[in-house]
Specification:
Blueprint: H1 18-26, H2 31-46, E1 47-48, E2 51-52, E3 58-61, H3 64-80, E4 94-98, H4 124-131, E5 135-140, H5 174-181, E6 187-192, H6 199-204, E7 207-210, E8 230-235, H7 238-248, E9 271-275, H8 284-299, E10 303-307, H9 310-321, H10 324-336, H11 345-352, H12 359-379, E11 385-389, H13 397-402, H14 404-411, H15 417-420, E12 423-429, E13 440-446, H16 450-464, E14 480-485, H17 497-500, E15 505-511, E16 516-520, E17 529-533, H18 536-541, E18 550-557, H19 558-566, E19 572-578, E20 584-590, E21 599-600, H20 607-618
Parallel strand pairs: 4-5, 4-6, 9-10, 9-11, 14-20
Antiparallel strand pairs: 1-2, 3-5, 6-8, 7-8, 7-12, 11-13, 12-13, 14-18, 15-18, 16-17, 16-21, 19-20
Helix pairs in contact: 2-3, 7-16, 9-12, 10-11, 16-20
Length: about 625
């Protein structure tokens, strides 16, 4: 989708990133025309004889009337902003919402028809995104009452895996993940109590961000385990996940479990811990894929250590063997007891089991959780983050049908403990398995480490050259220039408009060669960094250390590039920048003399992480 205009006839609208949607509107695209065309295209793929297919991504795809009502609200937001689309960072961007999260104007079913109700208001997280201009394309399928990691426990059918329909798509947020994987929307919302926002990401080759508990409000979410529930974000690329997180991470006084973003314990991730004696449950292909991922991590300069995983494993077992199942009963147990036709029998048996415990057992389990938590906190003194496969195996639909509880339990090996231990995590695509199926890794860190995780994720995706945008670098022609930006011109930063106003196209996020140092320049408005290349002789002698720095590559035509360069003030300029893969592009460089009064910030790995760090310090 390298040339997106308001002329949509005959062109697919699938696979667009946030940047693509913004470009479509900058080029004069009409929100009503684009979104109705997208809805028609999605409906054609997901329906049979005009009705959503069994196992569809959607429980409810927005009707023309529901879409029209949102477009009216969008115009009202634009009018309130005096017609300035820049004031609505998600103007006209479609997204999908898991159907246990309230959206006004849509029913909430939690994948149980008899449970359905009409919410009067949006869940807080939905409201924040709609206020930024986003449009709900529909409500997505899920494991009923968010109980499951398999994506098969729904009366609306199991959502098909887009890579191979014989395999599961993962749950419970199956529909939200596949909606992104199929390119219907650039991002979606899921929930994650035991891994539901990570397992489907791993099985569908997308990004799944599970923030710290309480950072994304769960007000308006049908509870699974209310004390552990998290809203999660799915996206095609790390940059889009980061942008959605920044908009949605707002303290909510209406949510008793909401908490403001705390001081980040990590600025950067360098040392990764890998569990010893990892179980693979007979999936040798999955094991081989993780071995390759470990090699990739080492090649990127991360230090790997092996740890005793037993405290984390024991904590994971507590989730379904302890009193937290009683929380599921507290949420929907009385409804489950009605034994209505739409209730999934596996879900019923799990939730009904939550009514058999005692208060003594609950307190004993909580005491053991705190003891294990202290052990885990000690473990984290020796490393920055855990590096694990998102799932230890990739089961087929037939395997899940044969042993639904056993397989589900296996899938939670590296996910169940995360919320119990108050950790945050991001699931990322890695290289495909040898059989062509997706393989994903998950990086897990202490609470409020989202920015460090997102920085790691940016490095990971850039270095592995995993898909981040539909536009390919090789599609450029002789009439355009590719320029690397490193600071205030990055997406979402104060000077990004100097690129977007010239119809520049974001190609990818990638890394510089390990030959540069990054500095925060003094007395610049807006704040700007300086990227300085280190002399090869100094690098070879070891007297200076080079770093790989995150950059964005943008393409613009030659005429626009000329006017763009004229706006660059000293001591910055445009020169030739070497990328980690050996490519040479035009890029921002800084005169070495300017760094005498600057702050060396290479350890952050990029400007975005440094700005996030400054904001966190200002909040202390």
């Amino acid at each position: 989708m390298s040339d997106i205009t308001s002329e949509t006839s005959g062109k697919s609208l699938l696979g667009l990133s946030l940047n693509d949607w913004a470009k479509a509107y900058r080029n004069g695209g009409n929100a009503s025309e684009l979104l109705n065309a997208l809805r028609a295209e999605v409906h054609q793929q997901e329906s049979c004889n005009g009705v959503l297919k069994k196992g569809s991504v959607w429980i409810e795809l927005a009707s023309e009337q529901q879409l029209g009502a949102q477009l009216i609200q969008l115009q009202q937001l634009l009018d309130a902003a005096d017609g300035d689309m820049q004031a609505l960072p998600l103007y006209g961007v479609p997204f999908a919402v898991k159907d246990n999260i309230d959206v006004a104007g849509f029913a909430t079913t939690a994948a149980c028809p008899e449970f359905a109700y009409e919410p009067q208001a949006d869940a807080t997280v939905v409201r924040l995104l709609r206020n930024a201009g986003a449009i709900v394309l529909g409500k997505t399928n899920l494991d009923q009452f968010a109980t499951g990691l398999v994506g098969t426990r729904s009366p609306y059918g199991a959502v098909a895996n887009p890579f191979n329909e014989e395999y599961i798509s993962g749950g419970s947020s199956s529909g939200s993940a596949v909606a992104v994987a199929r390119g219907y929307v650039p991002f979606s919302l899921g929930t994650d109590t035991a891994g539901s926002g990570r397992i489907p990401a791993g099985f569908n080759h997308i990004v799944g961000l599970k923030a710290s508990k309480g950072v994304l409000s769960t007000q308006g979410v049908v509870p699974a385990c209310r004390s552990l529930d998290c809203v999660s974000v799915f996206a095609l690329n790390t940059l889009d996940a980061e942008r959605i997180f920044a908009l949605a991470a707002q303290f909510d006084a209406q949510d008793a479990y909401s908490r403001p973003v705390g001081n980040p314990p990590l600025k950067t991730i360098r040392r990764l811990a890998v569990p010893a004696g990892m179980p693979w449950f007979g999936d040798d292909v999955q094991q081989a894929a993780f071995t390759a991922a470990l090699a990739n991590a080492e090649s990127l300069g991360f230090e790997l250590i092996t740890i005793d995983f037993s405290p984390l494993s024991e904590l994971a077992a507590l989730l379904y063997q302890g009193p937290w199942v009683a929380e599921r009963y507290a949420a929907v147990g009385e409804f489950i007891r009605q034994d209505l036709p739409g209730i999934n029998p596996v879900v019923k048996s799990i939730i009904a089991g939550g009514n058999s415990g005692t208060a003594v057992q609950a307190f004993n389990a909580e005491y053991r959780r705190m003891e294990l938590l202290r052990e885990i906190q000690q473990l984290f003194q020796d490393f920055d983050a855990l590096f694990v496969p998102t799932a230890p195996c990739f089961p087929t639909l037939a395997e899940v049908e044969a042993e639904p509880v056993k397989v589900n339990s296996q899938l939670g090996t590296y996910t169940n403990f995360v919320n119990l231990a108050d950790l945050c995590a991001i699931a990322l695509p890695a290289d495909l398995r040898s059989d062509g199926l997706p393989f994903g890794i998950t990086v897990i860190a202490p609470a409020f480490s989202e920015n460090a995780l997102l920085t790691f994720a940016g490095h990971w995706q850039a270095a592995l050259r995993l898909p981040q945008a539909p536009v390919l670098l090789g599609a450029r022609d002789d009439e355009s220039v590719v320029v690397a930006v490193v600071g205030a011109h990055l997406t979402g930063m104060p000077l990004n408009h100097q690129l977007t106003s010239r119809n520049a196209v974001l190609l990818e996020q990638t890394l510089s060669a390990e030959k540069y140092q990054l500095y925060a320049l003094a007395n610049t408005v807006p704040p700007k960094p300086g990227l300085v290349r280190i002399n090869d002789a100094l690098l070879n002698s070891g007297s200076e250390t080079g770093h790989k720095i995150i950059v964005e590559l943008w393409r613009m035509d030659v005429a626009a590039f000329g006017s763009f360069v004229e706006e660059i003030p000293q001591p910055l300029g445009i020169g030739t920048l070497e990328l980690a893969d050996g490519r040479l592009v035009k890029g921002f460089i800084c005169e070495p003399e300017a760094v005498a009064s600057a702050t060396h910030i290479s350890e952050f790995g990029g400007w975005r992480a440094y700005i996030a760090y400054l904001k966190s310090q200002a909040g202390k």
